[in-house]
Hints:
Elements (H helix, E strand, L loop, with lengths): L2 H4 L2 E7 L3 E8 L4 E2 L4 E4 L6 H14 L6 E5 L3 E2 L2 E2 L14 H9 L3 E5 H12 L8 E7 L3 E7 L2 E3 L8 E2 L2 E2 H5 L1 H6 L4 H19 L3 E5 L6 H4 L8 E4 L6 H34 L1
Parallel strand pairs: 1-5, 5-8, 9-14, 14-15
Antiparallel strand pairs: 1-2, 2-3, 2-4, 6-7, 9-10, 10-11, 12-13
Amino acid sequence: MTLLMKYNKVLGIDIGGSGIKGAPVNTDDGLMLEPRYRIPTPSPATPDNVAPLIAEMVKHFKWDGPVGCGFPGVVQHGIARTAANIDDSWIDTNVDKLFLKATGLPVSVVNDADAAGLAEMKFGAGIDAMGVVFLCTVGTGIGTVLFVDGKLVPNTELGHIELMGMDAEKFASDAARKAEELTWEDWAKRFNQYLLSIEKLINPDLIIVGGGASKKGELFLPYLKLKTRVVPAELLNNAGLVGAALAAKYMQKLDKKDRKNKKEKKVKRVKKK
């Protein structure tokens, strides 16, 4: 079995504010190969508390291959630069190395909304969509991802724009709906305000709504009044873990290409000598 064939099967993990979900994924078709496994997110959700649960996820599936992990915050080169709905102690943590140490396996960490977006664009509501596509995952917070002509603009974090004098996700997330016991119609008005602000900022051609709230799309989508076409995510709450698996496969390809380029440069230097 070649390394690339091995990467057609990747363990995808999605770290959320309330739960950590995972399943092996076939990255050729986006289908989960086994039933999803969920572990409640610990409190406090510190690196020391979460890392053993990633190892537990690996052990549950008896996994010995590559792992992709969606993380709720900005991730640059494997390092967390922000932390949303988890402990601030993650900031500046090398999450790739932390999870490698915990599992003994190569782990590629990516922003969770970016992961969900990758899955929807390849296997879901964003297939063949061009122009500006905006996807938001609505759950404990609001994760956002942006594509321009099919290309990802990473780490947008537009769920944290100011809205009604506060962080947008504190006003319009599904967690806010539950905490304030809002009806779906009343919450939809808040969510509509958020999406109107996004329209003014980036003028998207398509908006895809995913995350936990997407499972109840029929209860709030009819109340949205926007110029932009709005559709529910097709992979629903599994988009994050499917996209994390895709991201790991993509990062493996880049790493393989980078190693090949370095080897070729080294050979050229030796020949020159």
